[in-house]
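Quick one before lunch.
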Amino acid sequence: MESGFRLTLAALCAVSLVQCRPASPRTNLLLIVTDTLRADALACYGGSAHTPNICGLADRGVLFEVAYANAPWTPPSAASIFTGNYPTAYANLSSGPSYAPSFWVSDEEVLLGEALRARGYDVGLGSMSVLVRNANVLQGFEPLPQPPDPIDAALSGVAKTGEYLRSHDGTPFFLLEWFMDPHAPYEASGVLEQLEVDPSRLSRPLVFYTTLGHQTEPRMREHAPEMSDYELSVLRRLYFAEVERIDEKVGNLLRVLDEAGLRQSTYVVFTSDHGEGFGEHGTFLHGVSFHDELTRVPWIMAGPEIAPGTRVEMPVSLVDLMPTLRDLLAVDCLNDPQGRSLRPLLRGGAGTATDEPGHAHYLASPDKLIRGMDAVVDRNYKLIAMLNGRVALYDRSEDPGELHDLAGERPDVVSRMRAELGRIRGEKDARRGQNFAFRTEADKLEVHERSLRGLRALGYVE
Ligand SMILES: [Zn+2]
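Model of the zinc ion complex:
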């Protein structure tokens, strides 16, 4: 399998890694991504889930009030999170078996994990989602070892990362924890009793609601639109219960970090890859639109240089995450991504160079569900481009629920944002030429097989 071509590319990568400037002091990084968490579920974003640990992180750092995922489902969003580029650059448009990975970051792209590993960091993986792994964004990461049983209750849900932190030997680290919940099904195991659901007000047994999810996605899409308000409120409470369980896991991690004396020397980032719909625009689960319930996510971070209690109002998106982290960790050896460093916003106080009213964020998802649709968001508006060439325009501040399409009433805004959309689409097309999906047919088949096994395990496919 080792061709001369491959070796040459590996050598080129090595050269660019060697050029990475050694930073001092070498600050640690703990990146926590939780799947499917819409921002407005969290108390610090005005939501009703009780999330003292996540919101406590915001108190000692920065909270981005309007943060967008660049796609409404995992693989393209993960591609943006880890590369700092819009997801369309990584779309695998080649035909292949169904359930082929739709997004793929080529090995030739040098990611932060690889750059930090080359500089002597431990780059470790705790929990992980197979959908993320299959986008090939975990370059540079190695799985952390599973600690011996029985697992310490204090490390519940975060055993690998927790144990690493507890026995930390001073090597700088970049750790990634990707929690699958609150992804459907909303099982809320262990806390169902406390939710005090009234079975007489449900048209089916409670277990029907706690097992709706990807395995039973057609059932969810069929039944949810006909549910009563009470039934929908039960679905939401089950989801919130899962969010609260994630908050406990985050709390466990932060406690171990503190006990190990690592708080002052570690950037902690908390975010999600996309949101979840509960019928706001007639849809449930995710992946099917660019409305806020599917695309607005939490983004909170704390660490050296970040002023406690900072709130940033200007819209940002997750393509800005890697550029920001690279900037903070002084990694200056990687290619320029489409996202921008938000470092100037982290010290509190008023706006900065990045705070431009016209700066727009691009949302796209060229997959089988909404192939060809995309959207652009700026400080005031969101423009969604439909498959039929029509567009919808929403005023973000006057109409946060996105219920009134203003496209017919504000043609000047539409044409300005269409132009912005065209500009970003052109930029992404130029980038796609630099990326290629799979090096060989054998690579492709291997990834398809792995993907299929993982998707089966998750219940996405039979
Ligand atoms: Zn996801």
